Amino acid sequence: MRPGKWCGLAMVVALTATACGGGGGGRGTTADGPPGRDGFPVKVADCKGAETTFTAPPGKIVTSNATALEMLLRLGAGDRVIGTGFPPGKGTLPGDLGVRAAKVPVLGKGIIPKEKLLGSGADLYIDTFASMGAMGGAGDTPTEEEFAAAGIRHIYLASTACAAMAKGPQRDLSGVEGDLTRLGAVTGTAPRARALVAGMRAKVDTVHKALADVPEEKRPRYFFFDFDAGTKQPMALCGKQVGNAVLTQAGARNVFGDCDGDFKPVSWEDVVAKNPDWIQLGVRDRGDAAADAAAYDQAAQFLKTFPATKDLPAVRAGRFLRIGSERTTLPGTRTADTVEEIAHTLYPARFKAAR
What is the DSSP secondary-structure string of 99-126? Predict the structure, then answer.
């Protein structure tokens, strides 16, 4: 299911294949060579259509957070990353990936300070959070004029940065695939990007086949509980968020999939009225397995003792999924792994033979 919701966005690559086109096309539409050497030049448009042109791969890259860093590591361009914000915690990334990520200089434990970013010597900054006001730090974000003066090109991960501008909900992983494809084109790692996308599709297609005969109305109602957003007022994961695509592809019905935008504050009365069959304890990475486990326990305990939720059937039955927020709500190859994990939990009998 790749309906191409992102075709309506300005976030396109002029000389690369995107999920909207499904690859192929004439001159100037693929990342496989012509019109230029090694697929260059490449033009990338931001959420509003402003284009950035690359005539060669960037040599010094700064990433806004661990998501963009992980994508570059998986693409084989990690040796060009000279700094990151929101670094991955210890043990977050598996094996050698984690070892390489740990060697990347941390320019900010959260948002990178403007002066440090502009003085980093980077020739490319990859931004994940544009539509979220730089995660609350918009006042410390360089302007496009400041980026240009520092010689830094500025591009976005469209599936998150441009999500609020999408014409409709994200119901498949085409936005994530597009991000990987664009980064592959820009960094000169297009073949690796294609391989990563193919691997993601293979996992999701296996889930599709297993759930092909499950009608929409029979799919379980699913609530993503963003524990770290606060418990006083829950934050709904809406249709335009990447997580909605993950839940949909996993055979779940996002109980707030019909709200416009990516995230929206709701009330606990709204959650109770939705009566979810399953609840994901969306905990953000603490950088330590024991700390993560404790946070999941806290989230579950809150739901079990909070007057508004303690009598929900899903809470009484302990139908909780302990899956990190980042794997669900941020783009990357692990979104496909999250699709698998959710589907296997919701439909264990259908995947029993594969275990």
Answer: HHHHTS-EEESSSPPHHHHHTS--SEEE
**Tokens encoding 92:** 């977050």
Given a contact cutoff of 8 angstroms between Cβ atoms, the answer to whether 221 and 253 are in contact is yes
Between CA 193 and CA 283 the distance in angstroms is 28
Please, which residues have CB within 8 angstroms of residue 93's CB and are 6 or more apart in sequence? 66, 70, 73, 101
Of the candidates 32, 300, 318, 263, the one whose C-alpha atom is nearest the C-alpha of residue 129 is 263
Q: Which two tokens stand for residue 275?
A: 């009566």
Q: For the chain, which residues score pLDDT lower than 50?
A: 1-36, 131-138
8 Å CB contact between 224 and 248 = no
Q: How far apart are CA 241 and CA 144, in angstroms?
A: 25
For tokens 């499950």, what's the residue? Answer: 214
* pLDDT, tens only, 135-170: 444 457 899 999 999 999 999 999 999 998 888 999
Nearest to 100 by CA among 60, 125, 66, 59: 66
The total number of residues shown for the chain amounts to 355
Would you say 256 and 240 are in contact if contact means Cβ atoms under 8 Å apart? Answer: no
Q: What is the pLDDT of residue 2?
A: 41
Side chain identity, residue 22: G
| Per-residue exposure over 129-164, b if at least 16 CB sit within 10 Å of its own CB, e if not | bbbbebeebeeebbeeeebeebebbbbbbbbbbbbb
187 half-sphere exposure, CB direction, 13 A CA radius:
30
